[in-house]
Design a protein that fits this description.
Blueprint (H helix, E strand, L loop, with lengths): L10 E6 L4 H16 L8 E6 L5 H15 L7 H8 L2 E5 L8 H6 L6 E6 L6 H10 L8 E5 L6 H12 L7 E4 L6 H11 L13 E9 L8 H4 L3 H19 L8 H14 L8 E6 L8 H5 L9 E6 L11 E6 L6 E8 L17 E7 L3 E9 L8 E9 H4 L1 H4 L5 H11 L8 H21 L4 E3 L7 H8 L11
Parallel strand pairs: 1-2, 1-4, 2-3, 4-5, 5-6, 7-10, 8-15
Antiparallel strand pairs: 7-11, 8-9, 9-10, 11-12, 12-13, 13-14
Helix pairs in contact: 1-2, 1-14, 6-15, 9-10, 9-15, 10-15
């Protein structure tokens, strides 16, 4: 089975911050791979816009170096790289001043999709949006892509949305969250809504609890000053994990349509109960294995910012009443792993005398490092000696099951940028969705700040603080092992 590649329309994509780290690591190599796959038409143009005094050739040299560093060897094709570099242009620009804007306007043309990627700090969004309009660069159908963070609380998120709304309609704004571009995340919707097998069981009557884990082995060194102003709650839970929670818990939309999907996600966020203090565990990693502690990496020896957080969350609606969702994310943990585990309830009655080997059915959706799904079911243990039960996984590793297509599957940024060009907002967050997420998050943060709570220290290379284990143990449940 070959992967189908459907070319997009001719486009002009302007990348503000075109020489920045995100552009170098993700955006530009990703665009090259879409060119290599035949998805980008020859008439397309990619325009870097940044403060540096480069010309077109200087920018092409910069992009060639990024391809060399961040693209796998077997995907480097000299002819394809040459053709891709010919699509590139550059404008030296001052996004808060007037330099370069007339040069950018001069590159405009009719008949091409206009897209503007704001790969810059959110504080600059307003200045760029205002100048795109005042210099009459962005047309009525232009699309803008904005990176997180979408504010750091409800007030700043509302202000940011209001700033963008002064110059662009909501249908033109693409708030990008790369987690939604992952193949497995989208497959979650397919598994739920394209198979009768799961959807009748997808409710509290049959599901005991859900665990969502995003674990990282890296610390915050190199970005400690930035991270110390956000923490795990703002950096991961409010956006990435919230999106995963919504896709697990949402009702079936009437159609796979951008606003229909986002309407259902918004309902989940608004149904989230306030989180009790005893259902929150925060941690900071300690020094160990030759590495510094969070306090050292953040440069703030009195920091109360968390590098780890675990939460027990409830959704007050008919589908999920009584089923807890356990969320956790952290730095310097045992392994790099992102997964969703749906644990089903026990059968109402066991017909087997020996119930000692019984374990719950669990559907595990792996987002990284190896994308795929497996369903753990009970079978008879092979051999003589009576009916002994054992648990085995029905495994579907995408790399194995779809071996002929997975190597051509675009990564999250590749997919999402192509969706921008197509004008498909399904995998992008809407403004009211972002604000609803902050409206739920803010009281949690304000609560621990008012109480003066300090994060609990935890050793690097573990599963996090001891109190996080108790969060599950007191309910008679256990976290799934990280990296196992």
């Amino acid at each position: 089975m070959a992967s189908r590649v459907i070319p997009v329309e001719v486009f002009d994509l302007v990348i503000f911050g075109g020489t920045g780290d995100l552009a170098r690591r993700k955006i530009l190599p990703g665009l090259y791979l879409r060119w290599l796959a035949g998805q980008i038409p020859a008439e397309a143009r990619i325009i870097g816009a940044a403060r540096g005094e480069l010309d077109d050739q200087g920018f092409r040299d910069f992009v060639a170096a990024s391809i060399e560093e961040f693209v796998a060897r077997d995907r480097k094709d000299k002819a394809a790289i040459k053709g891709f570099l010919e699509r590139l242009h550059y404008v030296a620009i001052d996004v808060t001043g007037e330099k370069g804007w007339k040069d950018l306007k001069a590159l405009g043309r009719e008949g091409a999709v206009q897209a503007f990627y704001f790969s810059v700090a959110p504080a600059l969004f307003g200045a760029i949006a205002e100048r795109l309009r005042s210099y009459e660069i962005a047309g009525a159908e232009a699309r803008i892509v904005v990176e997180k963070p979408f504010g750091r609380d409800l007030a700043s998120a509302r202000a940011l949305n209001a700033t963008l709304a002064q110059h662009f309609e909501e249908g033109q704004i693409y708030r990008i969250d790369h987690y939604l571009g992952k193949e497995t995340v989208q497959n979650l919707m397919a598994v739920r809504f394209a198979n009768i097998l799961f959807e009748p069981l997808w409710k509290s009557e049959y599901i005991d609890h859900v665990q969502i884990t995003v674990a990282e082995t890296v610390g915050v060194e190199g970005r400690g000053a930035y991270y110390d102003k956000s923490g795990a709650m703002r950096d991961m839970v409010q956006n990435h994990i919230m999106q995963l929670l919504c896709l697990i818990a949402m009702e079936p939309p009437y159609h796979f349509d951008p606003d229909a999907v986002r309407d259902e996600k918004l309902k989940v966020i608004r149904a989230l109960d306030p989180v009790k203090p005893e259902d929150i565990v925060r941690g900071q990693y300690l020094a160990g294995a030759g590495e510094g502690s969070y306090l050292e990496h953040s440069g703030n020896k009195d920091s109360r910012t968390e590098s780890y957080i675990a939460l027990k969350v409830h959704i007050s609606n008919w589908r999920w009443k009584g089923t807890p969702f356990y969320l956790r994310t952290g730095k310097r943990l045992r392994a790099r792993e992102s997964e969703i585990a749906i644990t089903f309830r026990e059968p109402p009655h066991s017909i087997f005398d020996d119930h000692s080997g019984w374990r719950e059915n669990v559907l595990v959706i792996r987002l990284q490092p190896d994308e795929g799904m497996n369903l753990k079911v009970m079978i008879k243990e092979p051999g003589p000696g009576g009916m002994r039960l054992t648990q085995v996984p029905l495994d579907m590793s995408f790399a194995e099951a779809l071996a002929n297509t997975m190597e051509d599957v675009p990564d999250a940024y590749e997919r999402l940028i192509m969706d921008v060009i197509r004008g498909n907002q399904t995998l992008f967050m809407r403004g009211d969705e972002v604000e609803a997420a902050w409206a739920w998050t803010d009281p949690i943060i304000q609560g621990w700040e008012a109480r003066g709570d300090r994060p609990q220290g935890y050793d690097p290379g573990t599963s996090g603080p001891e109190d996080a284990l108790m969060l599950m143990h007191r309910d008679g449940r256990r976290w799934r092992g990280i990296g196992q």
